Amino acid sequence: xxxxxIFPILIPLLFGAIMLLPPISRDINSxxxxxxxxxxxxxxxxxxxxxxxxxxxxxxxxxxxxxxPFGIALVADKVSSLMVLLTAFLAFAVMLYAxxxxxxxxxxxxxLFMFQIMxxxxxxxxxxxxxxxxxxxxxxxxxxxxxxxxxxxxKTQATMHxxxxxxxxxxxxxxxxxxxxxxxxxxxxxxxxxxxxxxxGETATLAKTGALLLxxxxxxKAAMLPxxxxxxxxxxxxTAPVAALFAIMTKVGVYSxxxxxxxxxxxxxxxxANIATPWLWPLALLTITIGAIGVFxxxxxxxxSANLVIVSSGxxxxxxxxxxxxxxxxxLYYMVHSTxxxxxxxxxxxxxxxxxxxxxxxxxxxxxxxxxxxxxxxFAISALALVGMPPLSGFVGKIxxxxxxxxxxxxxxxxxxxxxxxxxxxITFSRAGTTLFWRHNGTAAAEAExxxxxxxxxxxxxxxxxxxxxxxxxxxxxxxxxxxxxxxxIHASAYQLLPGAAQ
Amino acid sequence: xxxxYAFCVGLLTACGIFLALxxxxxxxxxxxTLLSYAVNLFLFASGRLKLNAAAVLGxxxxxxxxxxxxxxxxxxxxxxxxxxxxxxxxxxxxxxxGNDHVDGTLPVSPADTAQQSGGNRxxxx
Lengths: 503, 125
Prior knowledge:
The structure holds two protein chains of two kinds. By secondary structure, chain A is an all-alpha fold.
């Protein structure tokens, strides 16, 4: 279908807009139905898009019929369609969880959720770097409002930091874009990839400044060290479905780093080849280290999962620093795994917190759970996946990253850090599990609410993804390898993405 | 002209960053606004500064690049929305947290023993 590539943006936009209109906007039940139906449609259309891209190749969609590089193009290749499908699946599972009652804390949860998905999908699909900025802003403004959903002092405080940081980030993004447009004269990513190689002398230095400014912005989104301080507090204070959806937000930053520094400033960029690599190496390794220390020091499950997000960001950035096809392929696999697994942990943490009274999700002696078997099972699966123990997907993902290191120096740095990070996670999870499930006093709280069926369904969907990723591991890695080789060899196909350009 | 323009952008950016680093949410919001003004001017200049060059065909002998102007329009709209949101959030934070510090708590310096109560601090002398 010709218009397939724009559906992942249009569906959430339409559903979000409809939910703001009178008949539905007053009734939370019809909003819930609309949201679930909307995310289901999104899931179906993204799956069809992935299937089409896999069988027919890259789908180029010229918005308004203006051909690239003059118009804005949406490029659905294997990488972006995989990320869109991941977003859709995450959104569907999280929405199932949210409609069970977490969406009542404030107004407009459902439209904002939809607009955020629209922004995320747009950022994945767009082939124009200014359009990437616009979609970043769409997803950001929705996330600002979602973050403060259900209110409270902690949320206001965290949102304040998050908003100010991201506003500064947006300004830097525009500065970077201005410099790149001034030197390259184009904003289409495929066109930029071709023109970057021709820069030399002063212009190249100027373009380098712009490109590294963009690295700061994407690093802020991806929680790269020194720009990671906002993340633990923000994610830990957000409402559970919001935090779970935010699990994909750092991945948007990592994805942009892959897009910009593998495709635009990759090996073919002449004087500017691989400019980000010397910065990415130390920062990625430090991010893993700080994340692992944070994991050790976490006093509650929500903080623990937020710190695990930092560790996974660090691992993905290390893949970007290795800058080879194997590493990119490993990163794509690990991205899918870590998004779903950490989202599941955020949701489980919320169910646990509601059953423990005042102790919430902190690691202290407290009342026993109302549903210890169910929660224990879910907690164990998500812990196994996040630590990276066989037989779940974390193990495969980490093995792929470890195998992707090329030289002995790389191995010497990456292996110990990733393995020690896993060890830190293992220790913290064992400590947490022991305290939460075995050390309690009194009886289950009378006011504790057991998890509802829809909530269990949402968590189960996310957890089920982990074994599925292992069972279909062969197909999955073949796909990520093809996607990675496409990303690294974009020069061969760049002109196909520019039907309007004279060759 | 270029020198003056560059100086203005630089000054706006410097003031914006200085204010954004302050502790009170009001000055931070003003700082972010200044920063977005600087960005808009900067984006405009990325299409090169030209005199007597309209972005419309047939109006002048040479043309200026219309794309940066479109980008600036987009950036202005987005920046405006974001500033509005930041202002509302700052007011909400002032109401929720009881003060207008960006961290939500007023920092206590060891030398300062005076009571901290917003703007109505009484003189103890």
